[in-house]
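# step 3/5: fold
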Amino acid sequence: MSIPKGQQRALLLRIAREAMVARGFMPDFTPKAMADAQALAAPRAPYGAGVQDLRDLLWCSIDNEDSRDLDQLTVAVQAPGGVTRILVAIADVSAAVALGSELDQHAQANTTSVYTAPQNFPMLPDRLSTDLTSLNEGEDRLAVVIEAVFEGAGAASIYPAVVRNRAKLAYSGVGAWLEGAGELPVAAAAVPGLADNLGLQDRVAQALKEKRHEHGALELETIEVRAKFEGDTVSSLEAERRNRAKEIIEDFMIAANGVMARFLEDHKLPVLRRIVREPERWPRIVEIALGLGDRLPPQPDAKALDAFLVRRRAADPLRFPDLSLSVIKLLGRGEYVASFPGEPPIGHFGLAVTQYTHSTAPNRRYPDLITQRMLKAALAGQPGPYAREALAALAARCTQKEDDAQKIERLLRKAAAACLLSDRIGDEFDGIVTGASEKGTYVRIFDPPVEGRVERGQAGLDVGDAVRVKLLYTDIERGFIDFAHISAGGKSGVRPAHSPPQR
């Protein structure tokens, strides 16, 4: 199926909106929610008792180039005695979104922002998420600051503060500079001392990552694929690889989330944890390792798996993202669970941590807004704002809606890919099997980075198999891309887990 190229964006937007509605999302805000958002004013000094003024620190944001909902800022401070403090400022969204308000009801219904190629569907109106509660460059903003020292006893604290973003930076530019492949971004160069601070942040992040790997955190590399447009036509699919700038944010956020979980637990409040249980298909991971000449124990072992992944990254860096995708899919999905005082926490297998919540993106994720409200209660010495049954129900809802959002985003990636491939029927591609079950067998081709269903010759294929396939059919409306399996390809690995839409 093909349509005039100039109509592709409009078609994809219709597909996105219909998918949102079909999965119970509200793609539009109610008039009351919009009116409430417009009526909000930016907080002004004085900001209230106990709010620290940290505007003089070298805060910066690092995110995607087109991100406008900036949830967090980071900075590192070298203290006397060689101790380094890391600080993460999280947008104070709960101050603007009252529990039970019209804005809160919309956020609770969707629980997450949904990002699609033709349009983003934010959890909160732009008036908040890209303005009043976004930590925008050059603006004074209220924030919750998580401060931690990881040397020695590892002291940590959480408190409200007013901050100012000195530079809006992108993963691509900062990552290239840190890795010696590009110049210091102009926005960073314009702030005296920021280059040195970014270097310090990078060194701390690498140390944090090394410490997590000592405890069995997995060495995984995923690739995010984004559709690019020329006018209203899908012109390419751009793969974004992990780099050192992404690792700064990843490792600082993992650390901050751990501090937050421990803080709430110490204050005898519930914690909405983000967990990944033990792998669903460990025997298949063992089999993949064996096929690559390596061995894993018969029972799930995070340290052994990480050691295997480190070896494979060194041996075959080009195919390592493909191996990562296979492992991610075989590990199983993440989920939110509510844990309560006195209960032993369930850990996150992939991160090798037990104290972990989501707290650093309250503009984009409702679990983070819930956690921020819990934190405010702890700081005020008050009981949590959610009853036990309500929090457990919200955890289940957030898990379900996150799954729904991922399916919508995956559908739109596939629909955009179908636009791009609609005139390449009959072409052959190398790829990797990313899914194999009674629901179907799926393959991700390498160039362009597209996932589709194997409709012919799929018998005997399993996750992680390298294959050569021929493109048979595309259907933009349904996001279908169908292949025929031709032959085995060279040994490979895997890439970021995105299950295909069910048919």
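# step 4/5: annotate
DSSP finds 13 helices and 18 strands in the chain.
# step 5/5: archive (pending)
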